[in-house]
């Protein structure tokens, strides 16, 4: 059962499905993704770093004579299979660099960009496929609820790739929806890439908007679903303005962000949201070596004070005091 998700993802990779079945269980349980690259070995990445797979399912940190090599024909065949042989129907996803296969499994793409008026219209000559393996780790977000933070204010979960942000966010969704730590909350889940929900049960009080761009999903959720909380994964700098509008609609947002604490210092658009008080709590995850584990929980106020890098911190604190009637 522990490695069920690995095996399900392996079934999407028909060219190597049988070989991947024989990968040792200990390796399966630690694998974050399966990587195919034209002319290169079949690879697994996880807690042990990058491992190369041989023709019997064994793994090694070094390439050997029996290491499986992915041919361009393999890449092409698997790509068409995950697109259900209809590349056109996945056009909007492909130009964003991924395809959603099966029941919410994300496949990252690498190839040659096709540009139109300076924007990516499509990707051709796909040369790499990265199959993310979703996990369910029940209770991993419990410490968030036990920390005593205010869930009626915005929460931003920050972590590097493969640090378990989506798994952590999913568990928080389940707790809120089922009322495991407080009364049940009506939550609107903006699941743009179908990664949060996928094949997982988010509970009775979770309304899931799949495939919506965040700006459109936010508007629809606020207008039609009457949520008490909005959940969204992987906000980018270009989506900050849309999230900013939701933050001040009276509905708190829990969101995740790719990056480390150091990355926050140089992201101006994001710092504007933090200054304005839209998010009041920052949750930093430890990283890929300890996925879903919390490094620290810090109020935005404390983070600015401790970082000593916000020239406008005085204005921001005055704003907060004014808004709370303390100025």
Tell me what you see in this structure.
This protein is of the alpha/beta class and 327 residues long. Helix content is 32%, strand content 27%. The strands form 2 sheets. It has a 7-stranded antiparallel beta sheet with strand order 4-3-2-1-7-6-5. The chain has a 7-stranded mixed beta sheet with strand order 10-9-11-12-8-13-14, sandwiched between helices. The protein is globular and about 55 Å long.
Estimate the global geometry from the Cα principal axes.
Answer: globular
Strand content: 25-35%
Question: Main sheet: which strands, in order across?
Answer: 4-3-2-1-7-6-5
Cα distance spanning the termini: 56 Å
Tell how many strands the DSSP assignment holds: 14
Query: What ranges have pLDDT less than 50 throughout 5 or more consecutive residues?
Result: 311-327
Task: Output the keywords.
single chain; 327 residues; alpha/beta; 13 helices; 14 strands; 32% helix; 27% strand; disordered C terminus
Short description:
The protein is α/β, with parallel strands linked by helices. The protein is 32% helix and 27% strand.
């Amino acid at each position: 059962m522990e490695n069920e998700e690995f095996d399900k993802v392996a079934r999407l990779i028909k060219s190597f499905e049988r070989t991947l079945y024989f990968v040792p269980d200990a390796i399966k349980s630690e694998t974050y993704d399966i990587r195919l690259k034209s002319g290169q070995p079949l690879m697994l990445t996880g807690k042990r770093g990058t491992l190369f797979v041989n023709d019997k399912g064994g793994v090694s940190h070094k390439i050997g004579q029996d290491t499986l090599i992915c041919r361009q024909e393999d890449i092409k065949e698997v790509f068409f299979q995950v697109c259900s042989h209809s590349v056109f129907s996945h056009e909007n996803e492909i130009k964003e660099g991924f395809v959603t296969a099966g029941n919410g499994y994300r496949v990252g793409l690498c190839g040659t960009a096709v540009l139109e008026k300076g924007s990516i219209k499509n990707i051709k000559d796909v040369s790499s496929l990265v199959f993310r393996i979703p996990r369910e780790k029940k209770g991993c977000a419990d410490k968030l609820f036990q920390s005593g933070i205010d869930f009626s204010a915005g929460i931003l979960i920050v972590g590097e790739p493969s640090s378990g942000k989506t798994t952590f966010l999913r568990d928080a969704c389940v707790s809120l929806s089922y009322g495991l730590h407080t009364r049940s909350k009506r939550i609107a889940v903006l699941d743009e890439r179908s990664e949060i929900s996928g094949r997982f049960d988010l509970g009775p009080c979770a309304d899931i908007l799949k495939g919506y761009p965040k700006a459109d999903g936010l508007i629809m959720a606020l207008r039609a679903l009457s949520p008490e909380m909005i959940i969204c994964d992987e906000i980018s700098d270009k989506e900050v303005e849309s999230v900013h509008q939701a933050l001040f609609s009276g509905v708190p947002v829990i969101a995740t962000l790719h990056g480390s604490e150091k990355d926050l210092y140089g992201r101006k658009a994001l710092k504007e949201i933090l200054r304005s008080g839209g998010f009041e709590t920052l949750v930093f995850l430890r990283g890929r070596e300890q996925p879903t584990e919390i490094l620290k929980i810090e109020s935005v106020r404390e983070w600015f004070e401790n970082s000593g890098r916000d020239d406008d911190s005085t204005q921001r604190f005055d704003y907060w005091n004014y808004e709370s009637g303390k100025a």
